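Table 4 source record.
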Amino acid sequence: MSTLTKILIVLLTVSSLFLCGIVVTYVANADDYKQKYDDQRDDIRASKDKAKKLTKQIKEKSEEMDRSKKKLNSSVSSLKTEVRTLKGKIQDLESEKAALSEKVNSWASITKDFYETNDKQGQLLKNTLGELDVLQAKQIKQKKELDETTSILRERMAIIETLESENDRLLEERSELQNRLGKGLLPFGKEPARATAVTPRRGPSRRTATREAPATRDIALHGLVTAVDLRNSMASVSIGSADGVKSGMKFHITRRDDFICDILIIDVDSEESVGILELIQQNPRIGDNASTNLNF
């Protein structure tokens, strides 16, 4: 065997070993790249699944909140209709009360005339007094119904305020869920939906819940509240018998443009009168205006 042949054999052997090393290195690196590719593909797939779940959750929550909003709006509409009905009933009761008061005064005048002019009409007088008692009892009943209707109206207004607060809370929760979904979609280059601004509703003002004051007398007397006893529901007025105040008169208490309550006079002094609080919308204070005629 010649020297050249030996050299060729050695070179061939070295080349074979070099090629084997290259193949082994390539196979090892190929397995490593494949593992990295599989890991990244699994991560992307898991992120997409998470995004789909979040999208589904926000959609379901939005549908649920839409249903709740429709239900709340329906309840609010129904309650507002009932409030309007109750206000109409209050006005009817006020009108009927005024008519009954006028009729009572008329019968009282007729009774007095018959009593003073003719003793022979005693039986007619007795019948008239009986009718007067019936009318007074009916007036008391109407006043009780009026107070009950006013109480129901206040309860309905409180329910409306509660429902509107619940509606505002649901809108805020929806905005928070949209923000969460936006944060979950940002890693994939998706632009999140803008959160809807929540504007809270204002509840009905106290002035709206305050009903009209009842009919007043023709005598126009004006004074101020000088003392208030809320525990016993009593108050005193700065005018008395010297100014024309009599027991049984009713003063309307106001503060600026707001109706506060009525005071039914039960005790009269020369310069001061004391009465019972009625139709209380707000607690009276010393210095509030007191008048037999209610003029805003």
